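Weekly modeling sync, notes
Attendees: AB, CL, MP (scribe)

Item 1: holo prediction request
CL wants a bound-state model with 5-O-phosphono-beta-D-ribofuranosylamine before deciding which constructs to order. AB pointed out that an apo prediction alone won't tell us much about the pocket. Agreed to run with the ligand included and paste results into these notes for async review.

Input as submitted:
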Amino acid sequence: MKNIVILISGRGSNMEAIVRAGLPAKIAAVISNRADAAGLKYAAQSGLPTQVVDEREFSSREASDAALATAIDRHSPDLVALAGFMRVLGGEFVRRYSGRLVNIHPSLLPAFPGLHTHRRALQEGVKVHGCTVHFVTPQIDHGPIIAQAAVPVRVGDTEAILAARVLQQEHRIYPLALRWFIDDRLAVDNGVVRVSGADAIQALLADA
Ligand code: GRF
């Protein structure tokens, strides 16, 4: 059975969706860079090992990345899932977990990498918005795309309304993408992820 380590910084609703999905894998640990991350409570209540590695306690990015890697590697992870982990990771760290480090981003990448994606989507007047699960590479929010889900942008949407609509889809596609990884259905070919199996595209276009 594959081991998954989940990294969070706050609310942890994506982590919760992954746990609730009952994937055929072991959630080996939930690690946060903030001791007050609300998601830690849910993880602990679910009986999952939790740990805090706060980068502010280290003198350099290299030192905190190394401490984080040590905490992660204790669990021999096959997969490290960033779930609202609000910290930019160094190139060495990203390379160490190459091919087994994934993230969820609240936009249809490559549109709107970075922060405040919903606000920017509204400002640009895009008619379709969404979320992306992707492999992490040293270039932030740019790795090979595993799964996406689209939602309409409606007249009268506020940032909060749009965020909630996207978040619902995040909770649907993140566990799905992890399941594909667990089932060895993903292959990366020249930066493009191929998902084997006929259900892949259909699953992503449902109820957008
Ligand atoms: C999500 O929108 C995720 O896409 C982004 O940060 C938010 C985290 O939410 N990276 P949660 O902590 O999973 O509830």
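Recorded for review: The first strand starts at residue 3 and ends at 8.
Action items: CL to compare against the apo run; MP to circulate these notes.
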